[in-house]
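Case study 2.
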Amino acid sequence: MKKIKTNSKICTGCSLCTMACSITKLGVANPHKGAIAISRDPWKRKEKITVCEQCKKAKCIEACSEGALYYDEDAVVRVKQEACTKCGACVDACPFEAIRLIDDRLIKCDLCENGTPQCLRVCSTGAIQLLETQVTTASPAQRGPVNVV
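Prediction:
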């Protein structure tokens, strides 16, 4: 199972990740239209990175009555745009605020379906990494180490 791991402490807030994502998802360079979002606290000079956690029991999938959200064979939460009615139930259900309706499309991180997530390619600080874990029923003591790719 793969998911994005972020480290807000080393994020500079440059928004290159959000731009790369919005280009990949919607074909426009707009930091407010990607599946990854950066919010800033100017008083504390801190950034917060918001991205889908690829939950094992995804509240967004449970909330969708149309079946527009589903797990693929790699346990990544994906969107069937044609099945989505834009009701917003999944947006409200996500505890991480990682799903958004933008330009009449449901946008969430799907780890860039066709390869390496674009946000990783442009993050120069390493604040965004791809975490790969094995899906297993073994106990924590029986599991192997977690590798960061």
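The chain has one domain: 2-57+98-148.
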